[in-house]
């Protein structure tokens, strides 16, 4: 009992050390679990939402649309749980200018179901549900009416649709019709699209740019009123996928097995079958056209023959009359009147030659008959020509049919192809990578501080340990006094850390995340395993340091422990050998130098602890500086143009005329902009349509006219880059990069995320959904957005643009019909404010789809999520620095109580004692700061390399002010600690402190 009471008394006496260990453990466990828990809660709630709404695991697209046969074949694939045929149609409407939307049929098989937020789901034809983004932009509400106009050609359906029915419906063959939706619409509900969880009021809404191939909004309509038997896509649910977390590798492996089966068993056969269907439909059209033409020609020939027969009968009557009259006249000259009368009653028989001669004579003598015969001959001639022409046309169609219908291609995609899903996953993964890195530093600092504190605690009880061991107590029993002390401190600190880690930090992060994404059903959850392991990790580290300190002392004999520890032998320090410096130092300066460098363990612990904390602060500020400069670097340095204007293809000419006529443009470049995807080409056929396992990036595909390739460098700074280490990259000379016809230039932001470099093969998807394998000629410096630049000729080569094959030899690329230049990059005159106002005014024009001012983007770009995480990291790093300095300062004082008492006996005033002790700590703190500043830059570079976010590349930037802030903050913490240490120095009693142990 006495042993226990003494142990409790010793614990109470060492409450400062207890608080230090507990606080370090609290901060470490909070960092270890907090960011992880916040990301995990977001992952889990999103996964539950996806499962509840039936977000598809696999999506199948085709360049020729999908038929019922395709859907039936997909249902037979092993591992497929459900298949849902999707019908959609692109429409336009007037909303402060021409806007586009996708009319999406709400599936009846439970896949990709929109989440109702307000109102009710549409049930009848003409009713729709819209997204909150549309409500915000349009100002409409539930009950509002809207009229839309179907696009003339749907890029979602087929690239082979070239025949329009009388009712305006696109047909790809004789039986399949493209989807058609009602055009008079009524809003009855507001929904969340499970394929895109972006918050319309958050970060992505302010900084993202939606190009022409992607519609502005999505409208959800019921099956009632939707016609058409051709499907735009098929969505699939995979057996067993719902049981896995959609963000785990196990889920990806489960889905990959099914996509591999589709690629191996269904795709090839159905591609051939679908093309044969199109060929059969084309042949049927030709056969039907020939039969219809033959029928029309037969009817026309019958009409001509009937008219000719009537004409011949009329002429024959005249011939007979003339022949009878001639016979009657001849009889009158040679016989009596009776004989003449008998002769006139009988028509004479004429041979065919005579009759034909008479016909020709009669026709020639009569203008009316001559005209009638000419009309009949002309009609027959025209009919014969039409027959020959039609037959020749049909034969040409038959010959051209196989070449005019391209090969049908399927594209099998998983959830990674969804821009909203991949953005959310990348954001959370990147933040979680920070949460995995920072606890390592906290753990190292915790072990160092625990070793320092516990070593001093054991050393203070040296004689007591010797007494207990001499009395027969086992070394383990004696060591348990300190092990239990450290364990209790870790458990209390860890418990508080779990509260902060699973409640405080996640709540803070999720507030920021919900500003970026809509996450229905989000809740905070506790992970017993991870929380227990988090505490166990720090317990093991701290106990290991405590055991080491105990072993170092207890390996001596009780007799040695009962004697005071011999002071360290005097030795020279390196500074003493530098005589010019040493000789000019004062007495107290020399004492301070000796105290600093002779006690190397204290030097290492103090400098290392302060350096680690300073590095964390610099690291956090480095990330903040990097993010803060992204907009300025991108929109003022890389983008040299001031304005990007995009229009629909049909309004491209009007848009250019409008911009040029305003007189604000000093120079411009016409380009074509499409939204697409970029994936790393696999080892197989690049056109296979199978998504790469390396993931994909949404890109902005920029096609440049062939005659103006050199002008691109005037609008965009072209600088080749190569991957560096520690967040750096080698940047080539400005202007040394040229766009040519041998490959594409890929933005650094996309190349870094996918591991693409010059010479790599990538698969590009253009705005029409057509995929092609392209060569990367260079990687261009780019921080925001994922631009891919391609020449007009290379674009035509990649995507089989037939009209563009010979553009290189054309007189002017502007006159070429290969591509529609639907966008303009322009430099403007005037201030930044006037440029921003001009861009806003352009968006009100009906011919302009989007106008982006680089000045406005540079000023408005921000990244709330990263800023929140940086603030959290800096706050925790500052707290750690304060605890570390407090622990080291108190340990330093406890080690030197006799020295401080001696100084007081020698006549030192309290302020002089303060200065004597604090000067050493300040010098050690300065040394730690000097070491921590470059270390923070190093760690910051490594961390930013791990932040692979869609369309963002973090070019590490640390401003001088950040170094100053980190240094000043650390020094301020050191000064704050002095306020706590000085009273301790004042309370040192020289008499009791200088008593001999004996």
Structural class: alpha+beta
CA-based gyration radius: 44 Å
Mean pLDDT: 80
Please give the number of β-strands: 25
- Runs in which pLDDT lies below 50 for 5 or more consecutive residues are 153-174, 203-213, 683-694, 802-817
Strand ordering within the main sheet: 16-17-23-20-22-21
Q: Strand count, sense and closure of the main sheet? A: 6 strands, mixed, barrel
Which range does the strand content fall in? 5-15%
Distance between the termini: 26 Å
Count of individual helical segments: 29
**General shape:** elongated
Specify the helix fraction band: 55-70%
What would the keywords be for this entry?
998 residues, alpha+beta, six-stranded mixed beta barrel, four-stranded antiparallel β-sheet, 29 helices, 55% helix
Question: How would you summarize the topology of this molecule?
Answer:
Blueprint: H1 2-13, H2 15-53, E1 58-66, H3 68-75, E2 80-86, E3 88-94, E4 98-105, E5 115-119, E6 127-131, H4 132-138, E7 145-147, E8 149-150, E9 163-164, E10 170-171, E11 184-192, H5 203-207, E12 217-221, E13 231-238, H6 249-334, H7 337-344, H8 352-365, H9 367-404, E14 410-414, H10 419-460, H11 462-470, H12 475-514, H13 528-554, H14 558-562, H15 579-582, H16 587-598, H17 600-628, H18 630-638, E15 643-646, H19 652-661, E16 665-680, E17 696-704, H20 712-715, E18 721-723, E19 729-731, E20 744-747, H21 748-754, E21 761-765, E22 771-780, E23 787-791, H22 792-799, E24 823-828, H23 832-842, E25 850-853, H24 854-860, H25 864-895, H26 897-905, H27 910-946, H28 960-986, H29 990-993
Parallel strand pairs: 4-12, 6-11, 17-23, 20-22
Antiparallel strand pairs: 1-13, 1-14, 2-13, 3-4, 3-8, 5-11, 7-11, 9-10, 15-24, 15-25, 16-17, 16-21, 16-24, 18-19, 20-23, 21-22
Helix pairs in contact: 2-10, 2-12, 2-13, 2-25, 3-6, 6-7, 6-8, 6-9, 8-9, 10-13, 10-17, 10-25, 12-13, 12-25, 16-27, 17-25, 17-27, 17-28, 18-24, 25-28, 27-28
């Amino acid at each position: 009992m006495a042993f226990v009471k003494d142990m409790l008394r010793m614990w109470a006496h060492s409450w400062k050390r207890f608080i230090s260990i507990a606080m370090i453990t609290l901060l470490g466990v909070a960092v270890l679990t907090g960011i992880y828990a916040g990301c995990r809660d977001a992952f889990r709630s999103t996964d539950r939402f996806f499962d509840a709404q039936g977000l598809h695991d696999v999506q199948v697209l085709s360049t020729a649309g999908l038929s019922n046969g395709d859907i039936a074949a997909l249902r037979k694939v092993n591992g497929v749980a459900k298949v849902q045929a999707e019908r959609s149609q692109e429409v336009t409407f007037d909303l402060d200018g021409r806007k586009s939307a996708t009319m999406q049929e709400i599936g009846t098989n439970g896949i990709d179901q929109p989440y109702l937020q307000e109102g009710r789901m549409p049930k009848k034809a003409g009713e729709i549900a819209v997204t909150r983004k549309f409500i915000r932009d349009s100002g409409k509400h539930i009950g509002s009416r809207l009229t839309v106009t179907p696009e003339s050609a749907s890029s979602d359906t087929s690239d082979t649709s070239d025949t329009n029915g009388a009712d305006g419906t696109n047909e790809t063959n004789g039986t399949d019709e493209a989807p058609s939706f009602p055009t008079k619409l009524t809003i009855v509900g507001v929904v969340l699209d499970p394929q895109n969880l972006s918050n319309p009021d958050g970060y992505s809404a302010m900084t993202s740019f939606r190009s022409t191939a992607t519609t502005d909004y999505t409208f959800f309509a019921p099956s009632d009123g939707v016609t058409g038997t051709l499907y735009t896509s098929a969505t699939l649910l995979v057996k067993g996928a719902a049981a896995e977390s959609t963000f785990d590798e196990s889920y990806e492996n489960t889905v990959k097995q099914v996509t591999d089966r589709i690629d191996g068993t269904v795709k090839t056969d159905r591609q051939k079958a679908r093309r044969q269907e199109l060929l059969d439909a084309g042949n049927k059209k030709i056969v039907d056209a020939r039969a219809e033409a033959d029928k029309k020609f037969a009817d026309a020939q019958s009409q001509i023959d009937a008219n000719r027969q009537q004409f011949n009968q009329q002429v024959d009557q005249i011939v007979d009359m003339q022949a009878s009259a001639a016979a009657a006249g001849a009889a009158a000259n040679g016989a009596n009147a009776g004989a003449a009368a008998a002769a006139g009653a009988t028509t004479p028989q004429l041979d065919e030659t005579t009759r034909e001669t008479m016909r020709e004579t009669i026709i020639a003598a009569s203008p009316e008959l001559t005209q009638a015969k000419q009309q009949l001959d002309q009609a027959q001639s025209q009919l014969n020509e039409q027959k020959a022409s039609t037959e020749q046309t049909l034969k040409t169609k038959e010959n051209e049919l196989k070449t005019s219908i391209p090969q049908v291609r399927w594209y099998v995609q998983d959830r990674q192809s969804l821009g909203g899903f991949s953005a959310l996953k990348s954001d959370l993964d990147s933040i979680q990578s920070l949460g995995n890195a920072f606890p390592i530093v906290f753990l190292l600092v915790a072990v160092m501080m625990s070793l320092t504190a516990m070593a001093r605690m054991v050393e203070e009880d040296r004689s007591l340990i010797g007494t207990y061991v001499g009395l027969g107590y086992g070394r383990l029993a004696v060591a348990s006094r300190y092990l239990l002390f450290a364990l209790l401190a870790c458990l209390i600190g860890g418990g508080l850390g779990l509260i902060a880690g699973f409640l405080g930090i996640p709540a803070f992060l999720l507030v920021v995340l919900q500003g970026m994404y809509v996450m229905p059903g989000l809740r905070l959850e506790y992970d017993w395993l991870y929380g227990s392991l988090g505490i166990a990790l720090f317990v093991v580290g701290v106990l290991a340091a405590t055991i080491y300190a105990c072993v170092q002392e207890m390996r001596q004999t009780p007799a040695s422990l009962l004697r005071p520890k011999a002071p360290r032998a005097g030795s020279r320090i390196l500074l003493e050998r530098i005589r010019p410096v040493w000789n000019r130092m004062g007495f107290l300066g020399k004492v301070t130098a000796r105290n600093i460098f002779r006690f190397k363990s204290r030097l290492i612990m103090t400098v290392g602890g302060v350096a680690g904390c300073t590095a964390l602060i610099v690291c956090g500020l480095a990330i903040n500086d990097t993010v803060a400069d992204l907009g300025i670097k991108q929109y003022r340095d890389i983008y040299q143009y001031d304005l990007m204007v995009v229009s629909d293809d049909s309004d491209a000419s009007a848009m250019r005329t409008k911009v040029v006529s305003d007189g604000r443009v000093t120079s411009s470049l016409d380009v074509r902009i499409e939204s697409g995807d970029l994936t790393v080409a696999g080892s197989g056929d690049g056109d296979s349509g199978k998504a790469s396992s390396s993931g994909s990036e949404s890109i902005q595909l920029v096609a440049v006219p062939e005659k103006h390739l050199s002008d691109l460098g005037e609008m965009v700074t072209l600088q080749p880059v190569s991957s560096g280490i520690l967040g750096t990259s080698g940047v080539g000379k400005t202007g040394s990069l040229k766009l040519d016809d041998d490959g594409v230039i890929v933005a650094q932001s996309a190349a870094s995320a996918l591991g693409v470099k010059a010479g790599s093969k990538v698969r590009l998807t253009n705005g029409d959904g057509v995929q092609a394998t392209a060569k990367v000629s260079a990687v261009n410096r780019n921080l925001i957005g994922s631009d891919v630049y391609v020449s007009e000729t290379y674009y035509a080569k990649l995507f089989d643009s037939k009209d563009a094959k010979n553009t290189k030899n054309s007189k002017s690329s502007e006159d070429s019909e290969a591509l529609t230049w639907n966008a303009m990059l322009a430099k403007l005159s005037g201030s930044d404010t006037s440029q921003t106002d001009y861009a806003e005014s352009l968006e009100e024009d009906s011919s302009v789809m989007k106008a982006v001012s680089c000045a406005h983007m540079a000023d408005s770009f921000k990244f709330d999520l990263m800023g929140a995480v940086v603030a959290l990291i800096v706050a925790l790093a500052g707290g750690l620095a304060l605890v570390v300095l407090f622990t080291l300062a108190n340990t330093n004082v406890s080690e030197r109580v006799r020295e401080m008492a001696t100084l007081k006996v020698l006549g030192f005033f309290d302020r002089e004692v303060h200065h004597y002790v604090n000067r050493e700590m300040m010098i050690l703190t300065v040394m730690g700061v000097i070491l921590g500043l470059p270390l923070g830059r190093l760690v910051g570079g490594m961390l930013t390399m791990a932040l692979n976010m869609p369309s963002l590349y973090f070019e590490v930037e640390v401003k001088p002010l950040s170094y100053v802030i980190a240094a000043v903050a650390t020094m301020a913490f050191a000064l704050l600690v002095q306020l706590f240490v000085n009273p301790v120095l004042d309370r040192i009693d020289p008499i009791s402190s200088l008593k001999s142990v004996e």
